Amino acid sequence: MITNTRKERIHKALLAAQQGDEEAYSLLYDDLKGLSFKIYFNFLHGSYRSDDWESDALEVLLRCVQHYDCQNNRALFSTYYMTALHHKAVDRLREMYSRNKRIEQKMLYYNGLDAPCIDIRTENYNPEEIAITRAAIEEMAIPKNADYRKVVAFLIGQGPKLHQPGAQTEPVIRVSYRFKKLLLKHLRQH
Hints:
The protein is built from 7 helices and no strands. By secondary structure, it is mainly alpha-helical. The model has no long low-confidence stretch (mean pLDDT 77). It has helices at 4-18, 22-44, 50-67, 77-106, 127-140, 146-155, 170-189. It folds into 2 domains: 4-102, Orthogonal Bundle (Rna Polymerase Sigma Factor, Chain: A); 109-189, no CATH class.
Protein backbone atom coordinates (compact mmCIF):
# COMPACT_ATOMS: atom_id res chain seq x y z
CA MET A 1 0.00 0.00 0.00
CA ILE A 2 1.27 3.46 -0.86
CA THR A 3 1.52 5.81 2.13
CA ASN A 4 0.46 9.44 1.90
CA THR A 5 4.04 10.69 1.98
CA ARG A 6 5.07 8.33 -0.81
CA LYS A 7 1.91 9.19 -2.73
CA GLU A 8 2.66 12.89 -2.39
CA ARG A 9 6.31 12.35 -3.34
CA ILE A 10 5.27 10.46 -6.49
CA HIS A 11 2.71 13.16 -7.34
CA LYS A 12 5.27 15.97 -6.94
CA ALA A 13 7.86 14.06 -9.00
CA LEU A 14 5.22 13.40 -11.65
CA LEU A 15 4.31 17.08 -11.92
CA ALA A 16 8.00 18.02 -12.12
CA ALA A 17 8.63 15.37 -14.80
CA GLN A 18 5.70 16.66 -16.85
CA GLN A 19 7.23 20.15 -16.62
CA GLY A 20 10.53 18.81 -18.02
CA ASP A 21 12.60 18.10 -14.90
CA GLU A 22 14.85 15.16 -15.81
CA GLU A 23 15.82 14.36 -12.22
CA ALA A 24 12.16 13.73 -11.45
CA TYR A 25 12.21 10.75 -13.83
CA SER A 26 14.92 9.06 -11.77
CA LEU A 27 12.98 9.73 -8.56
CA LEU A 28 9.85 8.24 -10.12
CA TYR A 29 11.74 5.25 -11.41
CA ASP A 30 13.36 4.60 -8.01
CA ASP A 31 9.98 4.79 -6.27
CA LEU A 32 8.23 2.54 -8.78
CA LYS A 33 11.02 0.05 -9.54
CA GLY A 34 9.39 -2.56 -7.30
CA LEU A 35 6.27 -2.58 -9.48
CA SER A 36 8.27 -3.26 -12.61
CA PHE A 37 10.09 -6.19 -11.04
CA LYS A 38 6.85 -7.57 -9.61
CA ILE A 39 5.45 -7.72 -13.15
CA TYR A 40 8.73 -9.18 -14.42
CA PHE A 41 8.77 -12.02 -11.87
CA ASN A 42 5.07 -12.78 -12.37
CA PHE A 43 5.15 -12.93 -16.17
CA LEU A 44 8.60 -12.90 -17.75
CA HIS A 45 11.05 -14.46 -15.30
CA GLY A 46 13.14 -17.10 -17.06
CA SER A 47 12.00 -16.20 -20.54
CA TYR A 48 13.06 -12.57 -20.90
CA ARG A 49 16.24 -10.86 -19.72
CA SER A 50 15.85 -8.65 -16.66
CA ASP A 51 18.02 -5.84 -18.06
CA ASP A 52 15.89 -5.76 -21.23
CA TRP A 53 12.78 -5.58 -19.06
CA GLU A 54 14.32 -2.75 -17.04
CA SER A 55 14.80 -0.70 -20.21
CA ASP A 56 11.23 -1.55 -21.30
CA ALA A 57 9.95 -0.42 -17.89
CA LEU A 58 11.79 2.89 -18.23
CA GLU A 59 10.30 3.39 -21.69
CA VAL A 60 6.82 2.67 -20.30
CA LEU A 61 7.46 5.14 -17.47
CA LEU A 62 8.40 7.89 -19.94
CA ARG A 63 5.24 7.25 -21.93
CA CYS A 64 3.04 7.10 -18.81
CA VAL A 65 4.38 10.42 -17.53
CA GLN A 66 3.50 12.06 -20.86
CA HIS A 67 -0.03 10.64 -21.01
CA TYR A 68 -1.14 10.72 -17.36
CA ASP A 69 -3.64 13.49 -16.59
CA CYS A 70 -2.94 14.84 -13.10
CA GLN A 71 -6.09 16.98 -12.90
CA ASN A 72 -8.68 14.42 -14.05
CA ASN A 73 -7.08 11.28 -12.71
CA ARG A 74 -9.28 8.27 -12.05
CA ALA A 75 -6.47 6.18 -10.55
CA LEU A 76 -3.16 6.65 -8.83
CA PHE A 77 -0.17 7.04 -11.09
CA SER A 78 1.32 3.84 -9.66
CA THR A 79 -1.82 1.91 -10.70
CA TYR A 80 -1.72 3.52 -14.14
CA TYR A 81 1.97 2.62 -14.49
CA MET A 82 1.45 -0.96 -13.27
CA THR A 83 -1.36 -1.49 -15.79
CA ALA A 84 0.86 -0.20 -18.59
CA LEU A 85 3.67 -2.54 -17.44
CA HIS A 86 1.25 -5.45 -17.42
CA HIS A 87 0.22 -4.68 -21.01
CA LYS A 88 3.89 -4.43 -22.05
CA ALA A 89 4.66 -7.81 -20.44
CA VAL A 90 1.74 -9.45 -22.24
CA ASP A 91 2.95 -7.91 -25.52
CA ARG A 92 6.43 -9.34 -24.92
CA LEU A 93 4.99 -12.81 -24.22
CA ARG A 94 2.89 -12.72 -27.37
CA GLU A 95 5.91 -11.58 -29.36
CA MET A 96 8.01 -14.48 -28.03
CA TYR A 97 5.27 -17.05 -28.72
CA SER A 98 4.78 -15.81 -32.29
CA ARG A 99 8.55 -15.77 -32.90
CA ASN A 100 8.76 -19.41 -31.79
CA LYS A 101 5.88 -20.27 -34.10
CA ARG A 102 7.68 -18.63 -37.04
CA ILE A 103 10.85 -20.60 -36.25
CA GLU A 104 8.86 -23.84 -36.36
CA GLN A 105 7.22 -22.89 -39.65
CA LYS A 106 10.54 -22.01 -41.33
CA MET A 107 12.24 -25.28 -40.47
CA LEU A 108 12.89 -27.71 -43.28
CA TYR A 109 12.36 -31.37 -42.58
CA TYR A 110 14.65 -34.16 -43.74
CA ASN A 111 12.08 -35.74 -46.04
CA GLY A 112 10.82 -32.50 -47.59
CA LEU A 113 7.29 -32.86 -46.24
CA ASP A 114 5.44 -29.92 -44.79
CA ALA A 115 4.24 -31.79 -41.72
CA PRO A 116 6.72 -32.23 -38.89
CA CYS A 117 7.97 -35.77 -38.30
CA ILE A 118 9.05 -35.14 -34.74
CA ASP A 119 7.71 -32.84 -32.09
CA ILE A 120 10.13 -29.90 -32.01
CA ARG A 121 8.22 -27.66 -29.60
CA THR A 122 9.93 -26.49 -26.48
CA GLU A 123 8.63 -25.14 -23.21
CA ASN A 124 11.59 -22.80 -22.94
CA TYR A 125 11.24 -19.37 -24.52
CA ASN A 126 14.73 -18.12 -23.77
CA PRO A 127 15.96 -16.73 -27.13
CA GLU A 128 19.56 -17.86 -26.57
CA GLU A 129 18.61 -21.47 -25.82
CA ILE A 130 16.17 -21.55 -28.74
CA ALA A 131 18.90 -20.37 -31.12
CA ILE A 132 21.30 -23.05 -29.86
CA THR A 133 18.65 -25.78 -30.16
CA ARG A 134 17.61 -24.60 -33.60
CA ALA A 135 21.22 -24.63 -34.81
CA ALA A 136 21.71 -28.17 -33.48
CA ILE A 137 18.54 -29.40 -35.19
CA GLU A 138 19.40 -27.67 -38.46
CA GLU A 139 22.91 -29.15 -38.40
CA MET A 140 21.53 -32.62 -37.77
CA ALA A 141 18.79 -32.26 -40.40
CA ILE A 142 21.07 -31.27 -43.30
CA PRO A 143 20.38 -33.92 -45.93
CA LYS A 144 23.88 -35.15 -46.76
CA ASN A 145 22.53 -38.12 -48.71
CA ALA A 146 19.65 -40.59 -48.69
CA ASP A 147 21.43 -43.09 -46.42
CA TYR A 148 22.17 -40.39 -43.86
CA ARG A 149 18.49 -39.35 -43.81
CA LYS A 150 17.40 -42.97 -43.34
CA VAL A 151 19.80 -43.54 -40.45
CA VAL A 152 18.79 -40.31 -38.67
CA ALA A 153 15.11 -41.15 -39.19
CA PHE A 154 15.68 -44.66 -37.81
CA LEU A 155 17.62 -43.39 -34.78
CA ILE A 156 14.92 -40.92 -33.77
CA GLY A 157 12.22 -43.51 -34.34
CA GLN A 158 10.62 -42.03 -37.46
CA GLY A 159 12.05 -44.17 -40.25
CA PRO A 160 11.28 -47.70 -41.41
CA LYS A 161 12.40 -50.58 -39.22
CA LEU A 162 15.76 -51.78 -40.51
CA HIS A 163 15.97 -55.40 -39.48
CA GLN A 164 16.33 -58.69 -41.24
CA PRO A 165 13.82 -61.49 -40.80
CA GLY A 166 14.84 -63.84 -38.01
CA ALA A 167 17.37 -61.42 -36.50
CA GLN A 168 17.23 -60.50 -32.85
CA THR A 169 15.94 -56.90 -32.79
CA GLU A 170 15.45 -56.25 -29.08
CA PRO A 171 19.06 -55.12 -28.36
CA VAL A 172 18.97 -52.85 -31.42
CA ILE A 173 15.71 -51.29 -30.26
CA ARG A 174 17.14 -50.78 -26.76
CA VAL A 175 20.30 -49.16 -28.14
CA SER A 176 18.36 -46.87 -30.47
CA TYR A 177 16.02 -45.89 -27.59
CA ARG A 178 19.01 -44.99 -25.41
CA PHE A 179 20.64 -43.12 -28.28
CA LYS A 180 17.43 -41.19 -28.90
CA LYS A 181 17.18 -40.24 -25.21
CA LEU A 182 20.83 -39.12 -25.17
CA LEU A 183 20.32 -37.14 -28.37
CA LEU A 184 17.26 -35.36 -26.98
CA LYS A 185 19.07 -34.70 -23.69
CA HIS A 186 22.03 -33.23 -25.60
CA LEU A 187 19.74 -31.02 -27.67
CA ARG A 188 18.02 -29.74 -24.54
CA GLN A 189 21.35 -28.95 -22.85
CA HIS A 190 22.70 -27.04 -25.83
